[in-house]
């Protein structure tokens, strides 16, 4: 087993209900109460929920109406991204006190490689405890952590003792840990894949491990080799301080649903302008333009076109997006529009998303 698992010490730090916790931190009247960040009682989608709200089934990405039905006492709070970024910056400074190998995944989570660290502490478990305490002392928020030999296992472990806890999976424990793990808890296995695995009789890591590489590739394509390896503790992805940009995107959710393509073009013009600014800022361009459409019934559709050359100009982006918009008739009124540019000409390593308006 030692030959299969790289001798690294990885910590995955995940803030506990970050957006909601920040709101409760700044407003004592919200502490101990079920709150939802984003949305409203009559419209929108929940972006984040406090642990008090999660007890009632309130979670991110569900309709605000459903959330309120599940939790009648739910309090909706408007998001404050500048504040979240401010606190996230403070937390990341703490990470860099321990190692330069920090890979942020979002404002509220990151991987740290502490195999060789600035504190000279050989115990990743003790370092994780210290980092979590430093975060609490500095910003007043709790964090959970997973510690193991690779990013995949550390990511899963960080969810085990939430909130305000941590779990270490030692090298000699990795295989048994993965064998006993429910397949739905495997990082990278979503709802659709989970259902497909259930149909194939795969409910745990052990059952996944029993399948051959040919079998998994036959049923899951390129992902088959990933599943084959990770359940055996093989995941050699390094913690990198910067992540490759795969897509630059901008989107807007509207107060009132749009039913006319004319109005949609007006909104797309604004979105394309914001996207152009972001592209220029990062000095990137791309070949594939994707139009994202979310309808009033919350169904979502994407339409894409790949150009033979790189583009970043607003006018050209809008021209292509307009073509995609009129490609087929709208299925319903539209609540959200977005434009993404991928297939980029860059080696920058940070996923960029511009959210023009968060109040769904």
Automatic annotation (TrEMBL):
**Sites annotated Substrate discrimination:** 19
Q: A Gene Ontology MF term for this entry?
A: magnesium ion binding
Predominant place of localization: cytoplasm
Q: What is the UniProt remark on how the cofactor binds and its stoichiometry?
A: Binds 2 magnesium ions per subunit.
Gene Ontology process terms (BP): DNA repair; DNA-templated DNA replication; error-prone translesion synthesis; SOS response
Q: Where in the cell is it found?
A: Cytoplasm
Which stretch is the leader sequence?
none
Q: What is the protein name for this chain?
A: DNA polymerase IV
Per the UniProt record, the source organism is: Flavobacterium micromati
């Amino acid at each position: 087993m030692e030959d299969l698992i790289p001798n690294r010490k990885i910590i995955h730090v995940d803030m506990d209900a970050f957006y909601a916790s920040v709101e409760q931190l700044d407003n004592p009247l919200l502490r101990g109460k079920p709150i939802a960040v984003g949305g409203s009682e009559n419209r929108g989608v929940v972006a984040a929920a406090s642990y008090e709200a999660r007890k009632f089934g309130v979670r991110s990405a569900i309709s605000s109406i459903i959330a309120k039905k599940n939790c009648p006492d739910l309090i909706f709070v408007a998001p404050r991204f500048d504040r979240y970024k401010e606190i996230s910056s403070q937390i990341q400074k703490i990470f860099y006190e321990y190692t330069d190998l920090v890979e942020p995944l979002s404002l509220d989570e990151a991987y740290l490689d502490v195999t060789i660290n600035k504190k000279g502490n050989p115990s990743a478990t003790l370092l994780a405890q210290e980092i979590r305490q430093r975060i609490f002392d500095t910003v007043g928020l709790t964090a959970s952590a997973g510690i193991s030999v690779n990013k995949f296992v550390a990511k899963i472990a960080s969810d085990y003792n939430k909130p305000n806890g941590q779990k270490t999976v030692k090298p000699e424990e990795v295989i048994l840990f993965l064998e006993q793990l429910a397949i739905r808890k495997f990082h990278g296995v979503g709802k659709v894949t989970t259902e497909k695995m259930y149909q194939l009789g795969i409910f745990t890591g052990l059952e996944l491990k029993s399948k051959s590489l040919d079998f998994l590739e036959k049923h899951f394509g390129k992902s088959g080799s990933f599943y084959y390896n990770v359940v055996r503790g093989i995941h050699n992805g390094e913690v990198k301080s910067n992540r490759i940009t795969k897509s630059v995107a901008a989107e807007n959710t509207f107060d009132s649903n749009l039913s006319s393509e004319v109005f949609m073009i007006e909104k797309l013009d604004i979105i394309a302008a914001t996207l152009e600014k972001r592209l220029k800022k990062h000095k990137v361009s791309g070949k594939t333009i994707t139009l994202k459409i979310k309808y009033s019934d919350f169904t979502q559709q994407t339409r894409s076109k790949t150009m033979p050359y790189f583009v970043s100009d607003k006018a050209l982006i809008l021209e292509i997006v307009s073509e995609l918009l009129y490609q087929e008739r709208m299925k319903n009124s539209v609540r959200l529009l977005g434009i993404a540019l991928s297939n980029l000409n860059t080696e920058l390593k940070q996923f960029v998303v511009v959210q023009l308006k968060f109040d769904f």
